[in-house]
Amino acid sequence: MALSAVRQRRSEPSDPSPSEPYTKLDKPEKAEEKDEGLGWVFPFVALGLLRYMSATSNIIHDCDEVFNYWEPLHFLLYKTGFQTWEYSSQFALRSYLYLLFHEIVGRPASWLFSEDKVRVFYAVRFFLGLLSVLTDTVLVVALSRKYGKRLATYALAMLCLTSGCFFASTSFLPSSFSMYAISLASGLFLLDKPAAAISVAVIGVILGWPFSILAFLPVTLYSLSRKFKEAFISAAVTSIILLALSIVTDFYYYGKWTSSVLNLLIYNVAGGGESHLYGTEGPLYYLRNGFNNFNFCFVLALLFLGILPIAKKKYAPDLLIVISPIYIWLGFMSLQPHKEERFLYPIYPLICVAASAVIESFPDFFRSKYNPYDRSIIVTVAKVMRPVVLSLILYASHARTFSLINGYSAPLEVYKILEHHDAENNSVLCIGSEWHRFPSSFFIPDYVGQVQWIDDGFRGLLPFPFNSTLGGTAAAPPYFNDKNMASDKQYLHDVVACTFLVELQLKRPYLTRGSDLSTWEPIAALPYLDRELSPALYRSFFIPYLWQEKNVFGMYKLLKRRTT
């Protein structure tokens, strides 16, 4: 009777079988939960805040950004500006379609702010920052949905705060545009949208930087292998539309049928471009540069392939495909004799993603493959090391960012003084050896009639003002060449004609023009970090108290000729 009175519960489908091990998935409430990952709002706001800070505080890192992009845009808006040989219709190496894309913001801003050109400059920078915010947000959300909140949060922190991403995100350069496209294409690929991903890759190559095609290759090929017909049609249609727009735009501005995309490829590849004329660096240049801009984040990113045997199930093949351009791009660019920091911009977001994956996998190095829920002391320590390493990366990144902004922002700030200074119309602003730090004509007020270069020993070819008499953008001026040979017309020989003078006065045993205080009156002066006399560690990273003490500073000056 007692046995018959025992009532047994009927086995439910969700009950674990007595013969099978019990796992977390056996809990009905856990099985029904779905990790939606990070939402769209938090990454957008976090990135937006940091990109706003970048737009307002970023320095100009490369004179190519000024003379190949800001100056032609200034000419389109105000009919004045400097022209480089690449924009001569004889060579036609630069795309006006890329400039027109930014004129979408620049033109309305010039109407809104009238003669305040500095605000137009920053309006375009805000636009660049917005593009970075949108594309990086897609990447972070895709990582969250595919690999979880932790990896996505680590990537978001690095995209926001690493020096490389902070500065590249608001730089007016095709390599930065390709960086935006890399982020967006990678995010769309992880969201299983191959057709959209390949279209974005095409935009990044044709509208941005043609050579970045190597960085887009893995995502492009794998997208084609997944949905060939859909992806191929998407790529073909996007390519045809953009190439047609590019050719028509080049015809309008260069005054002849040509393709700047094709010209650039022919000059650098088939034509054996002579980029070595503009300086060469050793094979380790990008490794040093990568560490400066990403510190330990860069080291961890390079170690991603090393963790694949442990984390293969998590990250292969999709994340491996997304991250593989780091190795392809670094290998290819390191083989080129002419190297510049901006050439690495396209892979900057991928460095953050790769490093995040390595940090997230720390516990996997010590966890038994037969016990995925190992809670041993060493695994716990590995988990604790994740935020520690991330914090170290972010602190070093802040130190780098702070050092660059405070050490090298003087040119932008000094030129802003001109807008608030009264002088006679048609004044002449003269610049000698500091021509390569000229922040663009957006910082030159209307009362300055001319910006002139004066000879301080530079023997390369300098930009000339766009010549409307010869045809403006369609001109092929005889003083331009592709051999970097100086023109005898590029300098103002009568220095007495200078109303203003910009120069950097360093602690050297020789006098500069501005040292003659009987002729020149300083109206603005800001400290500028002397790279040659400052120790590498202290100039590269801000170390409290020691940064000011160990580094050597010159004075970046704006001077005005005294009236007699």
Automatic annotation (TrEMBL):
Residues 1-31 are annotated as: Disordered. InterPro entries: GPI_mannosylTrfase. GO terms for molecular function: alpha-1,2-mannosyltransferase activity. The keyword Mitochondrion does not apply. Pfam families: Glyco_transf_22. GO terms for cellular component: endoplasmic reticulum membrane. It is a multi-pass membrane protein. Its EC number is 2.4.1.-. It is found in: Endoplasmic reticulum membrane. Pathway: Protein modification; protein glycosylation. Keywords: Endoplasmic reticulum, Glycosyltransferase, Membrane, Transferase, Transmembrane, Transmembrane helix. Its main location: endoplasmic reticulum. The chain crosses the membrane at residues 120-142, 154-175, 195-219, 231-254, 293-311, 318-335, 347-365. GO terms for biological process: protein N-linked glycosylation. Belongs to the glycosyltransferase 22 family. This is Mannosyltransferase. It comes from Glycine max (Soybean). The gene is LOC100805971.
